[in-house]
Protein backbone atom coordinates (compact mmCIF):
# COMPACT_ATOMS: atom_id res chain seq x y z
CA UNK A 1 0.00 0.00 0.00
CA UNK A 2 1.40 3.43 -0.89
CA UNK A 3 1.32 5.83 2.06
CA UNK A 4 0.40 8.87 -0.04
CA UNK A 5 -3.08 7.36 -0.55
CA UNK A 6 -3.62 6.68 3.18
CA UNK A 7 -5.77 8.94 5.35
CA UNK A 8 -3.52 11.61 6.96
CA UNK A 9 -4.26 10.42 10.54
CA UNK A 10 -3.27 6.85 9.72
CA UNK A 11 -0.22 8.08 7.78
CA UNK A 12 0.86 10.07 10.85
CA UNK A 13 0.56 6.89 12.97
CA UNK A 14 2.87 5.02 10.58
CA UNK A 15 5.36 7.90 10.53
CA UNK A 16 5.50 8.00 14.35
CA UNK A 17 5.75 4.20 14.48
CA UNK A 18 8.67 4.31 12.02
CA UNK A 19 10.48 6.96 14.06
CA UNK A 20 10.12 4.96 17.28
CA UNK A 21 11.55 1.82 15.72
CA UNK A 22 14.20 3.49 13.55
CA UNK A 23 17.60 1.86 14.09
CA UNK A 24 19.69 3.73 16.64
CA UNK A 25 22.94 3.10 14.75
CA UNK A 26 23.71 3.87 11.14
CA UNK A 27 24.28 0.56 9.37
CA UNK A 28 24.82 2.17 5.99
CA UNK A 29 27.89 0.15 5.03
CA UNK A 30 27.34 -3.10 6.92
CA UNK A 31 24.85 -5.89 7.26
CA UNK A 32 23.72 -6.52 10.81
CA UNK A 33 25.16 -9.71 12.21
CA UNK A 34 23.13 -12.48 10.58
CA UNK A 35 21.54 -14.99 12.86
CA UNK A 36 23.59 -18.14 13.21
CA UNK A 37 23.61 -21.43 15.07
CA UNK A 38 26.62 -23.49 16.09
CA UNK A 39 25.97 -27.15 16.64
CA UNK A 40 28.24 -29.91 17.90
CA UNK A 41 27.79 -33.64 17.72
CA UNK A 42 30.22 -36.56 18.08
CA UNK A 43 31.54 -36.30 14.51
CA UNK A 44 31.43 -32.62 13.57
CA UNK A 45 30.63 -29.01 14.24
CA UNK A 46 27.94 -27.40 12.13
CA UNK A 47 27.53 -23.67 11.56
CA UNK A 48 24.22 -22.47 10.13
CA UNK A 49 24.07 -18.86 8.93
CA UNK A 50 20.94 -17.10 7.77
CA UNK A 51 21.92 -15.07 4.70
CA UNK A 52 18.64 -14.58 2.88
CA UNK A 53 18.77 -12.23 -0.07
CA UNK A 54 22.48 -12.80 -0.69
CA UNK A 55 23.59 -14.65 -3.81
CA UNK A 56 25.80 -17.71 -3.47
CA UNK A 57 28.55 -16.04 -5.52
CA UNK A 58 28.62 -13.14 -3.02
CA UNK A 59 29.57 -15.44 -0.11
CA UNK A 60 33.19 -16.44 0.62
CA UNK A 61 34.22 -18.99 3.24
CA UNK A 62 37.91 -19.45 4.08
CA UNK A 63 40.12 -20.89 6.78
CA UNK A 64 43.23 -19.07 7.93
CA UNK A 65 45.27 -20.75 10.66
CA UNK A 66 42.76 -21.40 13.46
CA UNK A 67 39.95 -19.26 12.01
CA UNK A 68 36.89 -19.91 9.87
CA UNK A 69 36.10 -16.65 8.08
CA UNK A 70 32.77 -16.01 6.39
CA UNK A 71 32.39 -12.92 4.22
CA UNK A 72 29.26 -11.90 2.37
CA UNK A 73 27.86 -8.90 0.59
CA UNK A 74 24.25 -7.92 0.03
CA UNK A 75 24.22 -5.68 -3.01
CA UNK A 76 21.73 -2.87 -3.35
CA UNK A 77 19.67 -2.53 -6.52
CA UNK A 78 20.42 1.04 -7.59
CA UNK A 79 17.57 0.97 -10.13
CA UNK A 80 14.88 1.15 -7.44
CA UNK A 81 13.46 4.24 -5.79
CA UNK A 82 12.77 3.17 -2.22
CA UNK A 83 9.79 4.51 -0.27
CA UNK A 84 11.00 2.76 2.88
CA UNK A 85 14.29 0.91 3.18
CA UNK A 86 14.82 -1.49 6.10
CA UNK A 87 16.83 -4.26 4.43
CA UNK A 88 20.47 -3.48 4.99
CA UNK A 89 23.00 -3.69 2.20
CA UNK A 90 26.75 -3.92 2.40
CA UNK A 91 29.49 -6.21 3.62
CA UNK A 92 29.51 -8.76 6.40
CA UNK A 93 32.30 -10.72 8.04
CA UNK A 94 32.05 -13.32 10.80
CA UNK A 95 35.06 -15.11 12.27
CA UNK A 96 34.86 -18.34 14.25
CA UNK A 97 37.89 -19.66 16.15
CA UNK A 98 38.39 -23.33 15.27
CA UNK A 99 39.54 -25.93 17.79
CA UNK A 100 42.74 -27.90 17.15
CA UNK A 101 41.07 -31.25 16.51
CA UNK A 102 39.21 -30.50 13.27
CA UNK A 103 39.82 -31.81 9.77
CA UNK A 104 40.32 -28.60 7.76
CA UNK A 105 40.79 -30.55 4.54
CA UNK A 106 37.21 -31.83 4.65
CA UNK A 107 35.22 -28.76 5.68
CA UNK A 108 32.32 -28.32 3.29
CA UNK A 109 29.48 -25.87 2.86
CA UNK A 110 26.10 -25.73 1.19
CA UNK A 111 23.66 -22.91 0.48
CA UNK A 112 19.98 -23.85 0.64
CA UNK A 113 17.02 -21.45 0.86
CA UNK A 114 19.11 -18.55 2.17
CA UNK A 115 20.92 -20.70 4.74
CA UNK A 116 24.65 -21.41 4.61
CA UNK A 117 25.38 -24.72 6.31
CA UNK A 118 29.04 -25.43 7.07
CA UNK A 119 30.13 -28.88 8.21
CA UNK A 120 33.43 -29.00 10.11
CA UNK A 121 34.48 -32.61 10.74
CA UNK A 122 36.33 -33.50 13.92
CA UNK A 123 39.50 -35.58 13.95
CA UNK A 124 38.30 -38.57 15.90
CA UNK A 125 41.69 -40.23 16.30
CA UNK A 126 43.43 -37.86 18.73
CA UNK A 127 46.79 -39.61 18.47
CA UNK A 128 46.94 -38.42 14.82
CA UNK A 129 46.13 -34.85 15.83
CA UNK A 130 48.39 -32.45 13.98
CA UNK A 131 49.99 -35.24 11.96
CA UNK A 132 49.70 -35.68 8.23
CA UNK A 133 51.37 -38.32 6.09
CA UNK A 134 53.17 -36.75 3.16
CA UNK A 135 53.55 -38.91 0.11
CA UNK A 136 56.89 -38.82 -1.70
CA UNK A 137 56.57 -38.43 -5.43
Structural notes for this entry:
The chain is mostly beta strands. The chain is 9% helix and 34% strand. It has 1 helix and 7 strands. The strands form 2 sheets. A 4-stranded antiparallel beta sheet has the order 1-2-7-6, with no helix packed on it. A hairpin with a 3-residue loop joins β1 and β2. The chain is elongated and about 75 Å long. About 6% of the residues have low confidence.
Structure in a nutshell:
With 137 residues, the protein is mostly beta strands.
Oligomer: single chain
> How many DSSP H or I helices?
1
Order of helices and strands: HEEEEEEE
Mean pLDDT rating: 78
Number of strands: 7
Tell me which CATH architecture applies here: Sandwich
Bin the helical content: under 10%
Secondary-structure-based class equals: mainly beta
Give the domain tally. 1
Kindly identify the CATH topology.
Answer: Immunoglobulin-like
The separation of the N and C termini measures 69 Å
Question: What is the strand arrangement across the widest sheet?
Answer: 1-2-7-6
Low-confidence stretches: 23-30
Strand portion, in percent? 25-35%
CATH class: Mainly Beta
Largest sheet, in brief, is: 4 strands, antiparallel
* Overall geometric form: elongated
Radius of gyration: 22 Å
Record the SSE blueprint.
Elements (H helix, E strand, L loop, with lengths): L7 H13 L15 E5 L3 E7 L8 E6 L2 E8 L15 E8 L10 E5 L2 E7 L16
Antiparallel strand pairs: 1-2, 2-7, 3-4, 4-5, 6-7
Amino acid sequence: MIRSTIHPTIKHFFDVFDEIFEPVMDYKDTIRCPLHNTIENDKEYIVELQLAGIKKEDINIDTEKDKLIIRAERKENKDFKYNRKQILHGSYEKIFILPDFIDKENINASFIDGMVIISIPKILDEKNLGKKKIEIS
